[in-house]
Amino acid sequence: NKDGMKSPKELEKSKAAEEKISILGIENGMLKQALKTEQLARIHNANDMMQLESILQSMEKERAESEDIKYKLSIDIQTLSSNNQKLREKLKEGKNLFAICETFLKQNGLYEGPFYKDEN
After folding, report:
1. CB 64: neighbour CB atoms within 10 A?
2. Global pTM?
């Protein structure tokens, strides 16, 4: 049209184009929001993974320390068992020596009774 007025067909096309632009704008906003939500979820997941990794490292350190303590305790138990056995052997040797001395004293008439009193 030469007079600057749009024909009804042109107005309809213009209105449809405006609606299409409006719809595309809404879709664009929705896509931006979805992208932002996805990025935040990825950041959250990355933070969760870092926290889990940190927890895992702490647990591994505790496990290693626990294994070290367990190893040291097993050595201590072996040492105590060995010392206990040596002590039992010394006690047995002492009882045998005491019995030999007691027998010697009895045989030579020097024994007058027990050397100790059981106070229990």
Report:
1. 10
2. 0.49
